[in-house]
Specification:
The protein is of the alpha/beta class and 335 residues long. It has helices at 3-21, 44-55, 58-61, 74-83, 144-155, 170-179, 192-198, 225-230, 232-251, 253-263, 270-279, 285-293, 296-312, 320-323, 327-332, and strands at residues 34-41, 64-71, 88-91, 105-112, 117-122, 136-139, 164-167, 184-188, 202-207, 218-223. The N and C termini lie far apart (46 Å).
């Protein structure tokens, strides 16, 4: 056997072994780097692990290159993925919407949006939830903020039909509140920053933490079902890289936030970024395995899907137990 033929046979054998091993343990040397076009929202609860993982080389280590495209809302993200302009996305509560319509497969949770959604009011007009009846509340419908608002109103014995929800892009909703055009706004951080800075009588009436864990809102990663079926190894490598970045953020929060602020959030003061960090609830990758395995994540997702079924009139919705696949994470991250 010639030297070149021997090398070819050795390479072919290595590739065959990698294919046989599959997502659990394919040697890095046998895997080509995968480039994935990923849409995301520029808010810490969504892109914190992404930027940390890129800056620390976690994704490169696991042979993944993320081609990132920034969007404003999760609705736009799913529309782009359905249309084919991106292959994967990372978002908040909308992760429980489109997959329930049969449009997307969820495979990875980022965090719980513990207090990222908030309800702000002009305190000279609104003193309590009871004062909201008949009033206008600006928000972006179908998003994390809207899901939270619906929960908060019902928890305080107010039928959402008894308020006037004004649907605007979040930047416009906040502008409406600051200008005094509406007495209340349901938003997500960091949109609370201009509210606090520009409205002297602004008061936060509630945030999503008041309804945790009964009405937990989770965000995460989804992709097209055909992409997921054909690219399990790539999705598993994304999980590995994400887990390393996630665990670094939790173990080294001060350093991680400092790096994120300097490299990706220059317009946000470090103190505000720390506030955003506290507003999300993160779990170490090993701890997530328990929440995946015992059905907690599926339950949280289904709760939000139930909202979208009511609000969006989804016919024959796909349950979270079908659109969310915990198996790949559990196979990839051993408890």
């Amino acid at each position: 056997m010639t030297t070149n033929r021997r090398r070819f046979m050795q390479s072919a054998t290595a590739i065959g072994v990698a294919a046989a091993v599959g997502v659990r343990g394919a040697p890095a040397i046998a895997q080509a780097r995968s480039k994935v076009k990923v849409g995301y929202l520029h808010t810490l609860a969504v892109d914190g692990q992404i930027w940390t993982g890129i800056d620390r080389g976690n994704f490169a280590k696991h042979n993944v290159e993320l081609d990132l495209v920034q969007f404003t809302t999760g609705l736009e993200l799913f529309q782009a993925m359905i249309g084919g302009s991106i292959e994967m996305l990372v978002t908040g509560a909308v992760i429980s919407n489109f997959p329930a319509r049969g449009q997307g497969k969820m495979f990875l949770v980022n965090d719980v949006e513990f207090a990222t959604a908030q309800l702000w009011v002009h305190s000279d007009q609104i003193k309590s939830f009871a004062d909201l009846k008949g009033k206008k509340i600006s928000t972006t419908t179908g998003t994390t903020a809207h899901v939270f608002l619906d929960t908060a109103l019902r928890a305080n014995h107010i039928d959402p039909k008894d308020v006037e929800i004004v649907n605007q892009r979040m930047s416009e909703a906040v502008t409406s509140f600051i200008s005094g055009a509406v007495p209340a706004v349901a938003l997500w951080v960091p949109f609370n920053i201009p509210v606090k800075e520009k409205v002297k009588d602004a008061k936060m009436l509630a945030d999503a933490s008041a309804y945790y864990p009964q009405a937990a809102i989770v965000g995460g990663w989804a992709t097209r079902e055909d992409f997921y079926d054909k690219n399990k190894a790539t999705c598993a490598n994304i999980i590995r890289a994400w887990a390393e970045a996630n665990d670094h953020m939790i173990a080294n929060a001060e350093a991680a936030l400092d790096a994120l602020q300097k490299n990706h959030y220059k317009e946000v003061p470090l103190s505000d970024l720390k506030e955003q960090y506290k507003a999300q609830k993160m779990f170490a990758s090993k701890d997530w395995t328990k929440l995946y395995a015992d059905g907690t994540v599926t339950k949280w997702l289904q709760q939000v899907t139930d909202f979208f079924v009511r609000f969006g009139g989804i016919q024959n919705p796909v349950p979270a137990s079908k659109y969310f696949d915990p198996k790949l994470y559990l196979e990839t991250i051993r408890a």
